[in-house]
Amino acid sequence: MLTRRAGGHHLLNLRILTNHAFTYSLLIYVFLQLVQISLTFVIPNLAQLTFNQSALVAGFLLLAGSLLSSFLGPVMGRLLDDRGPRFPLIAGSLCIMASLILFTVFIANLTILTIIAFHVL
Question: The pTM is what?
């Protein structure tokens, strides 16, 4: 473990990972963030390479989802404080799963509007 020289206190205490609820919540959060980062990479590339859209249009595809995320962040944070991590993490996981399933099912019939709708979900 990393320690400070003077006091011997842990700079990074890894014992928090022995708390199963924290570890599971952390894993779900990391997975959700990886999916979100992946989508923000794939969606503009899909728009540019498949639909021959400009970089501006490809960037605008992410705008609605990003705005919704910025508005829902404080709301979900308040729910996290009031109800604990279970509801926000399960709701986020279900939305991401539904969005990924919709992307997979409709991959051959995607349009600009369906990409925006699935990303907002």
Answer: 0.71
